[in-house]
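Worked example 4.2. Below are the chains of a multi-component assembly; read each line carefully before continuing.
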Amino acid sequence: MNNLIKFFLPTLFLGLVFSACIKEDFDQPPVDGTDPGLTANATIAQLKALHSLGELETISEDWIIKATVVADDASGNLYQAFVIQDETGGIMVKIETADSYTLYPVGREVYVKCKGLVLGDYENLIQLGGFVTDDGQLGNIIKISDHLVRGKKGTPPVPNVKKISELTFDDVNTLVTVTDVQFVLADTFRTYADPVTRTTYNRNLEDCDGVGLLVRTSGYASFAGVSLPDGGGTLTGILGIFRDDLQFLVRDLNDVNMSGERCSGPVGPDPCAGGPVPIVAGVDEDFDALIDYDPVTLNGWTNIALQGTRVWQAREFSGNVYAQATAYNDSSPTMDTWLISPRIDLTTPLVLTFETAKSFYTHDGLTVWYSTDFECDPTAATWVPLPATIAKQSDPDNAFIPSGDVDLSALVGQKVAIGFHYVGGSGSGQTGTFRVDNIKLGMGGGNPDPCNGVTAPTVGFLMRILRVERPTTLLSKLAGPTSPWWVQSNGFIGILVEIRSCKLLHIKALKQPWRLGL
Amino acid sequence: MDLKSLTEHLAQVALKGPKPQLQETNVKDVITGEDRIPTITLDASDDDTDLGEQNISGILSASRDPFVAAASFNLSTGGFEIRGYEAETPTLFNGILVNNLETGSVYWSTWGGLNDVTRNRESIIDLSPFAYSFGGVGGAAAIDTRASEQRVGKRVSYMFSNRAYTGRVMATWNTGMLPSGWAFSFSGSRRWANEGYVPGTFYDSYSYFASIDKKLNSKHLLNLTAIGAPVRRGAQSPAMQQVNDLAGTNFYNPNWGWQNGEKRNARVVDAHQPFFVLRHDWTVSEKATLTTAVGYLTGHYGRTQLDWFNSPDPRPDYYRKLPVYYRLPGNGGSEVADQVADIYQNNPDLLQIQWDEIYEGNRLNGQSFNNTPGNMSQVIIGDQRSDLDRLSANTTYQNVVSDHLTINFGLQFQQEKTHYFSVVEDLLGGDYYVNVDRFALDEPLPGQLPEYNLNDTDPIVREGDTYKWDYDVTGRRTGSWLQGQFSFGKIDFFVAGEASSVSFWRTGHYRNGRFPDSSFGDSEKQDFFNYAGKGGVTYKINGRNYLYARAAYLNRAPDIRNAYVSARSRDQLVPGLTSEEVYSGEAGYLLRSPKMKARATFFWTQFKNGLRVNRFYLEDDVSSFGTSILTGTDKRHAGVELALQYKITPSWAVSGVASVGEYIYTSRPNSIFVVDDDGVLQDRGIAYLKNFYVPSTPQTAYSGTLEYRSPNFWSASVTLNYFDRNYIDVNPYRRTTDAVFGDELGDATYNRKVDQERLPSAYTVDLFANKSWKINDDVFFNLTLGVTNLLNASFRTGGFEQLRFNRADFDNGIDVFAPKYFYAYGANFFLMGALRF
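Applying the procedure described above to all two chains together yields the following structure tokens:
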């Protein structure tokens, strides 16, 4: 027993206190990265100087660049890429890994071991890649660890604050803030991009000087489905370029500081900027070429807000598209908007018909007018009410009520515009909704072709046919009589294949239209 | 949300782009865990005889060590591993080393269910000298199956249980050495369960054993042993706690689903690996013996699992089907998540595999590949085979040179080839499947093709065809060891040394489209030469009190399983493949008095330059598998073991053991990822794992037993066990600077990400009772009851963080890839009747 006490108990005691005595604290990974012990011996400007636009250069210099990540792929607006910047400029890095923000987040210092990497550009946007693909393109960096060494937490470059007009090519791939900007009125009804079809969109930014800049957002961005702000302010992001055009990339919504007042002065675009609206022989408009939620934009038609920011909007129900105006949930206290037809040259006595519907009735918000002196600015024209039947409180909701035949024979010899005028206001509770559809003027048949004589050659092979609205832009006609028309419509870019009707085009869409950066 | 809309919702979500996902490998399988210990766990009862021989130094024989007994019988409930080691025990079966060269482990299932004839064993758990091999840092074991050494007689037993199997019959007949010089031993058993303790697990196994001795003359004994255990059983896989909660049980098993009113398990182990040993014992002289044995093991080992192509992940616990996924703001938020949870709670069968949907999909999907007629199955069951052929030869020589010196010497040879391949087991209603890599089909990289086997131009596979991978890994080990044990009046001491060489290579039978240049044919051979030494001294204070101290140094080849980045596709080696070093020391005190036996040992082991390799599925966008490699992993296992046995009266005895250790990582390993797509090594930098705990064993464990032995041939005991300081396995990536970049050091998010989860402590109570009846002079009946975890305590015995990690979601408090846990069985029992005649 003696020995037991002598040896056993001390050992027992040692055991019981054991864990308390020896163990040190858990390891803690540092939150500001680690210094890899590398020294930079070149700058991004030096690197970019090696590049000739349109060429691919494999870097043989033993250069190490130290830069800070200014844009990553956390929001999904960049894919397999991030942007780094040092005091001399910025460059985009193409990397094979998705979710590279877990390794190269904004604010982290990165040492780039340039030797063996390849410089290239995508339509003038200089990029750093890893290899030259079989078809002569710039491939992503695959051997990431060999070239992109992560460093400590850096001081993020302060965005260069500029007006749109002050941006230069030197600002490309760097962090900039543009001031006094707003999205154009029509775009304030839109989202950054389309998260459902994953479609990339360009949206139009303008500043109070009227200078424009495209804001380009991927359909994969986490904020693709967010509505564009309808106020004004500043926007921060990475400046990009496509050919000769600058474009802007928002990293995430923290970059958007646009809840302030819009630019003072006339709201929206000058309706007379394009001159007097066209003169046509007749009107037959069912709005079916428009896309749900888009503002009504049709050749020759005027859609303008006199108060507030809202205009007439295309809506779709059961396959039927119509024009709708409503002050419901409008952020502006009052709404006053006109939808005006092109000027119709009344050479024969014609009859006007259309349909209207209402829902959530609060007031008689819709009135219909004609003008014989309208050219482009509704406020400068003289408007006369038309004796048409318009949906009223006692009509059932959502039912389209025929206007009855509105005889315009008294106006023969004049150029007549038909105006649909909606007035309401969320401030006054006058938020009722009105809809207009199937506006026809004529005697049936013989209406002139509103497609304005556009005919397109047939293209033999179709990759993919899209049903799109009529083109808002006919981009170019390539040289040669049989070359196709390039069209842009709702963000799709493609070759015009066929005009099925003046509302339905078939285009051969490019597989990745966003890559064109238009 | 009703059931229908949920199903549609799930289907839509699933269509959004989940890519096929295989299981994380190298996770601890509950059933494998069971495999490791069945002979011990279930047969504490019939360990009624045949305790091992005394060791030469006179130290308490290991197999009598109350510490080993308690660790094996009582503490295994809580996942306790002696000294926190894994697979550190070279084991000899009738003279043949049976540790797998690839993993270092012993696959006990090879001879499971034959407890009557494998009981004859010696083992050490420390650095003591051992007569049959050099041993490992965790000791050594040797099982003797010679017919002449088996207890003469016949024995029939029947056992009920509610564990992995519910019934077992066993019959054994041992003749002993007959006057003709022959001895025979035969044993067979059958184990079965329609459903074991865990839902959806069945068990269906036979075991057989035959051993024949022939005494050639007084100096030569020949033995031939054949043993095998064909088994089919359904496996359990661990799940996230939230799924357990939805299912209402911590034994939720995602592997089964209803089919025709029966529970069908998708993960079935089917194995039969017969093992033959021819052994020769030569008594060279009165003092010298030479034992030589040749062994051959062959057979098949397969594990099935769901596999799929162009289909949403069919596994019921796939994360996109779980409420937590809907909790993400982009997927609906907490309201939707609660609705989804409601639906699961009201329809628990939705948490199981939907076999009918799989069959319907495969029959009606209208999918084809390369215009091949018939329906291409989108979901199948594949059988992942690892068929082992092993040839071994061992020689052990012992010479008691004098009263003061005993010499042991041994030679060991082992060559094993494991044929790894994957077989289409069941097309589940479709007509064929394809041998094409879906991931590579999606986004081929330069120079890569999607075919798994470029040498076979037909990608169509049907039931019984090999697909996905087909290769051998061959390993060869030769070793020799020498040991000298010296005994003097007050002092015993020993020294031992071992030298060994290990070679291995991979032989690809497929030319993989992604790695056409590194997948087919023989790879470069890897050679390692290793050596080890140990020694110790015992000071005999008197006949009852001993002091001892031992030390060892081992330098050992890496486990072959860890050597290849992804052996399934190519022969690329893990970077910096080097031998691991082990330094170990122990010192203690031993008391042997008539009434009391006690032992206290302090141990300290430093592992240096270890490798940890895990395979897992990466983010959806990368849509690929990856391998996580940790190089330069150092560990320190240190602690104290205490054991005490005290006879209060001839009938009453108490015993207790305690193990208090600190098993921690002592280095910051380097973390490397390899994506299967391209094979490029991505350096993820330092994993800050220093001072993290080695996971999944309680580092504090106590067990105390009170036993009563009646002179009337019955006994009963009650045992109280306590487990604490058990930690879960961590995801090294969460402890890199990348994972916490920009966090606030020490704030809640940081700590939640970095800290290692400690499992709650637990205690269990076990009961054991045994009664023997003498029916006549030659016939005895023995009834044994064992109850484990009598109080039905529910507690975790281990767990692991998933290697998949989404930092943004995690930082926002939504852990889509939460840890998975292993639970101890609740109250469980066995009742066994045995007739000996």
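Take a moment to check your reading of the output against the notes. Residues 45 and 89 of chain A are 6 Å apart (CA to CA). Helices of chain A lie at 2-22, 44-49, 144-147.
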